[in-house]
Amino acid sequence: MLSKNVVKEVLNISIPAIAEAAVYTLMSMFDTMIIGNYGGNKAVSAVGISNEILNACVVIFITIGLSIGITSFVSRSIGARDKKEAEEYASIGFVIGIFLSFILCYGLFIFSRTILQIAGARGGVLDLSDTYTRITIVSIFFNMLINIISSILRGYGNTYTPFVASLIVAALKIVFDLALIFGITAPKMGVIGAAVASVISQFFGFIFLLLYLLIKSEVKIRLRYMIKLHTGKVKNLLFLAIPSSMEEAAFSTSRLLGTFIIMRAGTIPFAANQIANIVESMSFMPGMGFGTAATTLVGLKIGERNYKKAKEYGYACALGAVIMMGVFGIVFLLMPGFLVDLFVNEDERKVVYLASLCLFIGAFEQPSIALSLVFAGALKGAGDAKSPFIVSLLTSWLIRVPLIFYFIRILKLSIIYVWWITVIQWTVDAILMFIYFEKRLNKLG
Fold first, then answer.
1. Dihedral of the alpha carbons of 268, 274, 280, 281, in degrees to the nearest 10
2. 66 DSSP assignment
3. Predicted structure pTM score
4. Rounded to the nearest 5°, which phi and psi values hold at 80?
5. What burial class does residue 187 get, using C-beta atoms within 10 Å of its C-beta: 0-12 exposed, 13-18 middle, 19+ buried?
6. How far is the C-alpha of 331 from the C-alpha of 278, rounded, in Å?
7. What is the CA radius of gyration of the chain?
8. Residue partners of 31: CB distance under 8 A and separation at least 6
9. What residue intervals traverse the membrane (predicted)?
């Protein structure tokens, strides 16, 4: 049985993290709804392929890469009651984050059109997507820095402030979306207005978090640690961040490759897949939130050398994620058409039909996604990023990519087969993550 204190601590950290994920997800959904109703499946395709590429880069190198490393080391240092070391890791991570974010954004800007062409974008979709991408890259830079600062705060259990930042970003994004896309109190810019709105909202979110980090944060960045980087700690951080990045890279690149294959099947299957993914992303909020809590709480307990408690926190996070994501799964089973219908106009019935079938199938993968996200986060909190990488590599490239290529590219079957494939992938992924978590904690204990 889980103690009340464990449940309380898990909820105190996970609920703001879930709320933050919910805000960003709903913001993305609202953005897609506006664009879909404004420009139909071509506009969704243009924006969708751009966002797939940019978001993959952010998640691979920052959100799941460097940020996880920072949270893990800060949490373990705080657990060991070594605030000085926590601030040193935070400062080192911040410097690396700025440098990495700039290099990534510069490369994406220079090679934007080439990347989109490789992805399969053509004609008007390519032109629109290229312009949208180049503007959005500026917002991505600020988004990466938001992720870095948030990871420092989460390291000592502060998930509330990143949530407040998400409210600021989302509120500004929605206001400027309406103003710029449709020309309400501003020049009508269409899809490009959505990109400009992203730049404005992410910039102010970054400013808010930076001021909080410098003035009020329990763990602050220190100039002396930023100027004179400790080589050993840089290596420690990178040795955890790199496998974590590689884990997400294995998954995201396989997902991108699947997206490219689907893109070549036509705009209707692609738009249906994108919309179903957007709707399903609602259910990731609990998994991401409890995964964040697992990284922080397991890291804190590992720092205290309380391995039994670390395992208990991992199980508590997993249970919470499964229950919440299971509720979303039931909703996807009962009303997929209603949810999909919010994203497209009445002329796009083929898109609605396909997306509804995809979402229905997606209901069956919710419990396994929950377990995978939580145990991967718990492993990283325990300082093990290699095991999640191995699992992600195996399930992404031995299950997802070959089967999608075979069923969609070779046999040219319906897009719904992609979703049955991901059900299989996540099931295997969850089982392996749990096995590695058990082995890691038993070895430490």
1. -170
2. I
3. 0.82
4. -85, 5
5. exposed
6. 15
7. 21
8. 47, 173, 177, 194
9. 21-41, 53-77, 89-111, 131-153, 160-184, 190-215, 315-339, 351-377, 389-408, 414-437
Cα–Cα distance list, 152 to 28, 157, 236 (Å): 24, 9, 16
Q: Phi/psi zone of residue 383: left (φ > 0), alpha (ψ -120 to 50 degrees), beta?
A: left
CA distance linking residue 351 with residue 357, whole number of Å: 10
Structure tokens, 323: 């229950």
Q: At what angle do helices 307-334 and 4-58 cross, to 10 degrees?
A: 70
E strands of 29-105, at which residues? none
For 312, the 3-state DSSP assignment is helix
- Are 72 and 383 a contacting pair, CB within 8 Å? yes
The amino acid that residue 310 corresponds to is A
Pair 54, 137: CB distance under 8 Å: yes
Please name the residues in contact with 426: beta carbons below 8 A apart, sequence gap of 6 or more. 365, 368, 369, 372, 395
Question: Residue 225 is inside which H or E element, if any?
Answer: helix 223-227
Q: Which residues form the domain of 313?
A: 4-444
% of the chain with per-residue pLDDT over 90: 53
CA angle 186, 189, 192 (to 5 degrees): 130
Instruction: Give tens-digit pLDDT for 258-281.
Output: 888 887 777 788 888 888 988 898
pLDDT for position 310: 92
Helix axes 83-110, 67-79, angle to 10 degrees: 180
434 — phi, psi (to 5°)?
Answer: -65, -45
- Amino acid identity of residue 409, one-letter, is R
pLDDT the model gives residue 404: 92
Q: What distance in Å separates the CA atoms of residue 118 and residue 441, rounded to the nearest whole number?
A: 43
Instruction: Note whether 392 and 432 are within 8 A (CB).
Output: no
pLDDT tens for each residue of 216-232:
999 999 999 999 888 99
Count of H-run helices and E-run strands, the chain:
18, 0
Contact criterion met (CB below 8 Å) for 163 and 289: no
Query: What is the enclosing helix (H) or strand (E) of 141?
Result: helix 123-155
- Sign of the CA dihedral running 108, 113, 116, 117: negative
Quote the CA–CA distance of 317 and 288 in Å, as a whole number. Answer: 10
* Angle, helix 4-58 to helix 191-215, in steps of 10 degrees: 130
Residue 130: CB partners within 8 Å, gap ≥ 6? 112, 113, 116, 121
CB 314 within 8 A of CB 38: no
Beta-carbon contacts of residue 300 (< 8 Å; ≥ 6 apart): 75, 76, 78, 79, 157
